[in-house]
Design a protein that fits this description.
MetI-like fold, MetI-like, transport, MetI-like_sf, 0% strand, transmembrane helix, membrane, 2 domains
């Protein structure tokens, strides 16, 4: 198991290096001089000497390979550089905002799993019946409705009509735990609706496939109860595709919660990325993209380890 984990870790580190290199190259390929863009006022070209001075300050006058090695050296020390707009540390800004997005995505995943897994198993056990058709139809509906529509409806019902929670905003957990959880609830449910539908459909299909296997049929023929079959044979074998889907969606959600954070005024890393792209703040864009990509790689690494635990054949493959 340790040898398998070490191999996967080396592959993950190589992927992070590749991502860091690609981010650096893409940012430098984009047309336009960051120094000119920062100094331009109202579309008027800045003085050339000011542009030259700023390029020297930002290190943009150095050869590309020198900039690349400086960039990698900074990353190795946890330094993502400083914002071109306000000179704030990019690492500090990400460290402030990333936990909020991770909390939001984590809460959404928990809600999706709490509802998606049991409903998926239930739909599989009632395959072809009215309950199965109802759950499948609801899942298809949840996947077809845009996330901003779901968010608006949740605000209308929970905040406007029932007045159970505030319409949006953010407050630190240490300041007011109950209010924090109340503000977290609506955006988390908004994300969980679509993710839960995916979990339900994947769980249903996986459970149906496992139920057709010979050892499960043999257990049924021996008179083993349905609950025991589900607990001993079905759930463990059906978890692998569910884990894959959830991990992939979590990685995508880290950078895709822009609309949700905007609708609910949640100050996470996605909104920070949009602001950075709009202002052409390259150090911020590079830092955010690299961190999100690294988390995606980390999730895949953890999924590989979980595979090895669920199915020992994986680590010997």
């Amino acid at each position: 198991m340790l040898a398998y984990a070490a191999r996967r870790l080396l592959v993950s580190l190589a992927l992070v290096w590749v991502v860091a290199t690609l981010v650096f190259m893409v940012i430098h390929i984009i047309p336009g001089d960051p120094a000119e863009l920062l100094l331009a006022q109202g579309g008027v070209a800045p003085d050339p000497w000011l542009v030259t001075d700023l390029r020297e300050k930002l290190g943009l006058d150095q050869p590309l390979m020198t900039q690349y090695w400086t960039y990698l050296g900074g990353l190795a020390q946890g330094n993502f550089g400083y914002s071109l707009l306000d000179d704030h540390s990019v690492a500090d800004e990400i460290a402030l905002r990333l936990p909020r997005t991770l909390e939001l995505v984590g809460a959404a995943a928990l809600i999706a799993l709490l509802f998606g897994l049991p409903l998926g198993v239930l739909a599989a056990l009632r395959a072809g019946e009215a309950l199965d058709r109802l759950l499948s139809s609801l899942a298809a509906l949840a996947l077809s409705v845009p996330v901003f529509v779901v968010g608006t409806l949740i605000i209308l019902v929970l905040a406007q009509n029932l007045r159970l929670v505030p319409a949006g905003g953010y407050i630190a957990f240490a300041t007011d735990p109950l209010r924090h959880l109340g503000l977290l609830l609506m955006p988390a449910i908004t994300i969980a609706v679509g993710l839960g539908a995916v979990v339900l459909r994947v769980t249903r299909g996986s459970v149906l496939e496992v139920l057709e296997r010979d050892h499960v049929r043999a257990a049924q023929a021996r008179g083993v109860s349905v609950a025991a079959i589900i607990r001993r044979h079905v759930v463990r074998n059906a978890l692998t595709p569910v884990v894959t889907v959830v991990a992939l969606h979590l990685g995508a959600l880290l950078g895709g919660t822009v609309l949700v954070e905007f609708v609910f005024n949640w100050p996470g890393v996605s909104g920070y990325l949009v602001r950075s792209v709009e202002s052409r703040d390259y150090p911020e864009v590079m830092g955010i993209v690299l961190v999100i990509s690294s988390i995606f790689v980390l999730l895949n690494f953890l999924v590989d380890l979980l595979y090895a635990v669920i199915d020992p054949r994986v680590r010997h493959g």
